[in-house]
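Job type: complex structure
Entries:
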Amino acid sequence: MNDYAISVIVNGVTYERRIPPRRSLVDFLRDDLALTGTHVGCEHGICGACTVMLDGVPIRSCIVYAVQADGASITTVEGLSPDGSTLTPLQDAFVECHGLQCGFCTPGMLIAATALLREKPDPSADEIRDELGGNICRCTGYQQIVEAVQLAARTGGTR
Amino acid sequence: MIVERPAPAVETTAESPKHRYIGKKRRAVEHRRFVLGRGKFAGDVTLPHLHHVAIVSSPHAHARILGIDVSAALALPGVLGVVTGDELCAQTKPLRQYLDMPGVDWFPLAGAVARYAGEWVVAVVATDRAIAEDAAELVEVTYEPLPAVLDPERAMADGSPPVHASHPSNVMYHRTFVWGDVDAHFAAAERTLQARYRWHRSATVPIETFAVVAAWDVGTNMLDVWASIQMPQYPEQLATALGIPLNGVRVHFDVDVGGSYGVKRGIKHSVLTAYLSRRFRVPVKFVEDRLENMRGGDMHGPDRIFDVEAAFGDDGVVRSLKIRTIDDEGAYPGRSPLQMGKPVGAIVGAYKIASVRYEVVAVVTNKAGQVAVRGFGQAPTNFVLELTMDRVAAAVGIDRLEVRRRNFIQPQDFPYTIPSGTEYDSGDYPTVLGKAERLADVDALIRWRDDARAHGRVAGIGVASCIEPGGGNAIFQALFNPKDDSTTFPEGCQVKIDRHGTVSAQIGVASSGQAHETLVSAVLGEEFAIDPDQIRVIHADSLAGLPSQSPVASRMAIMLGDASVGAARRLKAKMLEIAAYRLGMSPSDCVWDGTGVRRADGTGEIVSWMEMVRIAHVTYHKLPPGMDPGLQAQFVLEVQNSGRLPTPDGRVQMYPCQSFSAHVVAVEIDRGTGKVSFHKYALAHDCGTVINPDIVRGMVMGGIAHGIGAALYERFVYDDNGQLITQTFADYMMPTTHEVPPVEMVEHETPSPLTTMGQKGVGEGGYMSTPAAVVSAINDALAPFGTRIDHAPATPVDLLERMR
Ligand code: FES
Ligand code: FES
């Protein structure tokens, strides 16, 4: 199979690469671009660990081929903080509320919650639980995650 | 509308000493790297010339391997090599198992016989994972299917197909312990009851699969390993299996582990990967895919049948218990049978039961191997204990909470020795249960339930209590294998104060979400009276670090906490000596005051932190004669109240510290779908002195979520042909935000007398109590139907059947 040339913008940087058509987007991000913040939990679209933003919409990068992202703009967890080191209100709230333990589901949770807060700046607990229902966390029991999103909504959403 | 509740304040029984940092809200220092996407997980590790592995698995539950043709795989461009079980079994030593089982060998790849569907048979190494997978598909294995046995009771019977032909039977261990006068207590009892329970196979299934990178260096003859590991004696077992000196294995513990809860014991993955690296002289990475993990990762949890008898009075007071446990270990028992040993240390739960007969049977079948799972076998045992207390309550017509109160070990009884020989350190069970009752508002719950029933709905209230032993030790090894006399289970910490006066600590473990850097820095900050956020904690590799047994057994607050205190106090004693010499005083006449040292009578100048640091590191002429320069101290702690062998009748001191919790839940079951939803989840919890309230709460909440999974959803189901049919996340159902309700929790502190701060363990209790509490509520809901559930998980299909 021939490699394909793609051009994608990831966290504001344009990358041009030749890749095999079967390479998943998450493998492309992790292996080709060394952006290892996005994680792989199941590779069949259930756990949400691989969630990234594709043209502003959260998607599961394990069930999208990298070639499908040709021309798209992608945000991964590494791109949430504008300078890569100052925490966004959401990231800060996850730390403050202990909304994580091992940190493995966290990048996907942050992307999903970022999308939620853009849509609904002041979500109820039920709405948060609905939106994050596709991201599995085995560590926290979710409660401190919900509290973190609520805190972020109060302190500044996705700023 | 669901209302999320903030963590409540901690309430204390005893007068707690004044702490600067212990018990206070503090952010976990680890979190910053995770929210920035800068965690370093084993799967993120990359090295020059790194190669990748894919696995060929057996499609048969039991089969002889007649031949393997690897020529097509080897011909594929990018493939470096292929290794079969024959080669690996000849070139490595069997993986460590803990029972004495002659003829039962466990290797990373099956040799002559594959013993379960999904067992790994061949490994392919290639330049990338996709090519390795392509090549794996080209490997031709010829099998001769053999009869398989999947039911543990059938496997125990005469005439069962043997799982290991070289072992006389499928029963790998069978022992009956009797502690106290069980026969007399049963004979004298006003009442007895009998019940059978089933705890089906599930596991804690972290979102990260097992990942390992191994690099054999031909120049230094050293093996470097990065792995998502949570396992005692991992470097030792690697060295033994590979036949290399232990000082030639360097395991890097500065790897973030993406959840474990007991199961990240990828020793077979690691031996395989290390072997491949040495064999092909390239660094090799193996990241299990989800199928390799679920079918072949040997990470399933306990799978048990319990037969229980209880002897009790009309007053609901239980005198004696008989418990028989059959555990289906799968094909390779490994360490898992010891999970029937750990419950010995809390075999009567929180109750003053005078005698116990405990029979354990470890049996092998043609299923994936088991591994340690959160609580090390005590979640199923507590499930059975608590459901039995519910049955006792029903038999005598007394409220379930009241029956527990009548049986509780009382606060004045501590230290209290249970019939199996374990001394409980401290507790106040009636007070904690009372707090759970008030928090849940049980009277209101009863009104809610009765009203729901009056309207034709199916609703119930459940209750469970739980002892959570913490601290860990190795005693079940000797208990289940007289050839094993291990009694040491240490944890170490090394602390340094450098020339600039900053403090760093080295710990010898990787963390999988327990925030050990936060723990150690808080403890050291408290000891040195300095801001914990200024203290750096690093995870040393296995050659640089001190002995450690990894974060198992709810032990790190207890063990790593006190090892850190020990190292800090050694350093403080040295600094005190330095300061006293400088003041021309005897050390006994000087005291610490904040971060400096002064005369004990409070007069005169303070020798400052930086002055002591400078004397230690720079001005040797000011150092007390004969003292070593520098400021560094190590402390290796043996488990408190441990280190003894079992008595001949199998009485043991299991873990030193006993945490306690009481859960009250209310559920409603949908009559049309069988779905269980929570109206209330409340608990009171006591793990002694709390070091970090958010971390304690998170541990409990996470355990509850696992417990809800085990109670209602999660099960590894094998079909009659021995094929695992719940092997993806689409069939193995794990709770999401929709299935885990908001939980209300109150924390109570009964300090342990055995630890420096009064702390106890916290990692496992949620998982040990929740399945019992949830099924207790289901049974209350089913009572009007005259039926009950005695197994976990209680799936919607089970419940629909019961409500017919
Ligand atoms: S890894 Fe993509 S959904 Fe699980
Ligand atoms: S923090 Fe570990 S899986 Fe969510």
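Summary: Chain A has a mean pLDDT of 96. The beta strands of chain A are 4-10, 13-19, 51-54, 57-60, 73-75.
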